[in-house]
Amino acid sequence: MNKKWWKESVVYQIYPRSFQDSNGDGIGDIRGIISRLDYLKELGIDVVWLSPVYESPNDDNGYDISNYEAIMDEFGTMEDWEEMLQEMHNRGIKLMMDLVVNHTSDEHAWFVESRKSKDNPYRDYYVWRPAKDGKEPNNWESAFSGSTWEYDEETEEYFLHIFSKKQPDLNWENPKVRKEVYQMMKFWLDKGIDGFRMDVINFISKVDGLPDAENPEGKRYVSGHDYFMNGPRIHEYLQEMHQEVLSQYDIITVGEMPGVTPDQGILYTDEDRKELNMVFQFEHMDLDTQPGLNKWHLKPLYLPDLKDTMTKWQKGMEGKGWNSLYWNNHDQPRIVSRFGDDGEYRVRSAKMLAACLHMMQGTPYIYQGEEIGMTNVRFKDISDYKDIETLNMYNEKTADAEAEPEKIMHSIYTKGRDNARTPVQWDNSEHAGFTTGTPWIAVNPNYTNINAQQALHDQDSVFHFYRKLIQLRKENDIIVYGTYDLLLRDHEQIFAYTRTLGNETLLVITNFSSETPVFKLPEQIAYRSKEILISNYNADPEENMEYFTMKPWEARVYRLFS
Ligand code: NOJ
C-alpha cells in the first residue's frame, strides 16, 4: 500500500461559530481559534478541517457563501485568518478549508447578476427553468423541506436549490463556472492551505433534463437523490479539477458524499483515477433511521447492522481506495448520546466508541467537543433552536393539524444538527468559557461537569484517551496500514475485529452495551505473545483474554505477535 501523510494523519474539525469567541459578541471567531491552538497541539491532531469562514449571510451558518475570497466579518479579517494559518503551521498543524461549490448564497455577486435577466452573462452560472404545467419544473424535494425550486418574479423562471432557497445550485455544465471554481481554489492553495473538504461534492452533476423523480405514493415532493447524487459527469468534473488544481499541490482532499456506495467510493478514491483522497460516506449514519424515510424517522441501532456497514467499507476499500472514519460532525448528533450512554457510562462509552473507530483503517476525524465526550442537548423551547433544517422541518410538520409536537421534539433531541452546534465547553465559568457575551446558541447546561479544563486535569478523561489513541497511531504502522477482519459478526453487544500487518495482529474488542457479555476468542486467532495497547478499564495484562466477561462499554486493544 502506498504510504501517504494524509493516511497517517488525524483530523480535527472546527465549526467556527461554536468553537471560541474572542470579542464577546457571542459568536466564535478566528482569534478564538488561535487562542486554542495549544490545546489542539496537546491533543496531538495533525490537520484542522475548518468549516466555512467565508463571507455569508448565514442562512445555513456559512454553507451559503456570498464571497469565496473574503472572510466573514463576524469571524474576523483576512489578516486574522493569515495569522491563524501561520500559527497552525508553527505548531505543525495543517489546515483543510471547506469548499462549498455545489451552490453559493443567493447574495453572491454571480447570482445577483444571474437573476437580473435571461440574457445576463451570469444567467447560466445557475440552473434556471420555466414552469412546467404552471408548477415547479420537477417534483424534487429540498434537503431542507419543500420544493428544490424557487420562483423568481424578475424573469418569471424557477432556479434550482437542493438546500435552502438562499443556496442556489451552481451549473457545473457551464465551463466558465468550473474555471471560476478552480481559480478560487488556487487562491486559497497559494495562500498555503493544505487541502479541501468538499461539501456535497457528489451533487454537482445532475441527470440530463432534470426529470421528475418516481413518485408511487403521489406525494407533492419526493427525494430527487437518484437524479443528482453521483450524476453522469461527476467523475469527469473531479478528474478535471484534479488535473487543473489538485495535482499541482501536495494536499489532503475529502469529498462529502451522501448516498455513496463502496464501489463508487473506489471510483472516487483509487489513486490511479486521480480524483480525491477519500470520501465521507453516510451509511453508518443512516442505521438509526427507518429505511426509505428521512432522518427524523427514528429507529434504534442494531449493532450487527453497524458491524456490517463498517466492515463493508473497511473491506470494500482495502487496497483500492481510502476510508475516512468519523462518528460526528456539525450535521450529526453527538455520538456518545447516539450509540453510547450519555448517563452513567458517558466516559466509558465515549472512550469505547473512540477506540472502536480509531483502530480501523482510514483517516480519523474528531469533531470539536467529541474529545471531551460532549453530549446532545434538549432545549425545551423550539425558539432555542437555530438550525434551518430543524426549523423548516418543525414548521412544516406543525402546520399539519394532526401533528404531535412531542414526537417532533423527540426527533429533534435525537437527530437535530444543533446537538453538535452548542458551544464547546471549555470550563465551568458562565457560558462554559465560550464567550463573555450572550452565545448565539445556548450552551449545554451540563458544561459544569463536562468541560475541557476538567478533562485536561483528569488523566482518566476522554481527552487523554483520545490523545493516547492519536499517539498510538503515530507509533504503530499496523493501525494505519493493517488489513481489517471482523470477528463475531452476529453478536448483538460485542464489536470485535482484528488488524493484521506482517507477523503482528491487533485485536480490538468493544462492548456496545451496559450489559456484561462474554467474549470468546475465535479459534483461528493464533498468537505467541500478547500485550495491551489501550483499554478503558485498566484491564489486567495477564488476564485470560480468550474467554472473559466484559464490563459495561468496555474496550480493549491487544497487540499479538505470532
Ligand atoms: C453539507 C454540510 O455539511 C451541511 O452543514 C450543509 O447544510 C449542506 N451540506 C449544504 O451546504
UniProtKB/TrEMBL annotation:
<protein>
    <recommendedName>
        <fullName>oligo-1,6-glucosidase</fullName>
        <ecNumber>3.2.1.10</ecNumber>
    </recommendedName>
</protein>
<dbReference type="GO" id="GO:0004556">
    <property type="term" value="F:alpha-amylase activity"/>
</dbReference>
<dbReference type="InterPro" id="IPR013780">
    <property type="entry name" value="Glyco_hydro_b"/>
</dbReference>
<keyword id="KW-0963">Cytoplasm</keyword>
<comment type="similarity">
    <text>Belongs to the glycosyl hydrolase 13 family.</text>
</comment>
<dbReference type="InterPro" id="IPR056300">
    <property type="entry name" value="SusG-like_C"/>
</dbReference>
<dbReference type="InterPro" id="IPR045857">
    <property type="entry name" value="O16G_dom_2"/>
</dbReference>
<dbReference type="InterPro" id="IPR006047">
    <property type="entry name" value="GH13_cat_dom"/>
</dbReference>
<keyword id="KW-0326">Glycosidase</keyword>
<dbReference type="Pfam" id="PF00128">
    <property type="entry name" value="Alpha-amylase"/>
</dbReference>
<dbReference type="InterPro" id="IPR017853">
    <property type="entry name" value="GH"/>
</dbReference>
<dbReference type="GO" id="GO:0009313">
    <property type="term" value="P:oligosaccharide catabolic process"/>
</dbReference>
<dbReference type="GO" id="GO:0004574">
    <property type="term" value="F:oligo-1,6-glucosidase activity"/>
</dbReference>
<dbReference type="Pfam" id="PF23915">
    <property type="entry name" value="SusG_C"/>
</dbReference>
<dbReference type="GO" id="GO:0005737">
    <property type="term" value="C:cytoplasm"/>
</dbReference>
<keyword id="KW-0378">Hydrolase</keyword>
<feature type="domain" description="Glycosyl hydrolase family 13 catalytic">
    <location>
        <begin position="13"/>
        <end position="421"/>
    </location>
</feature>
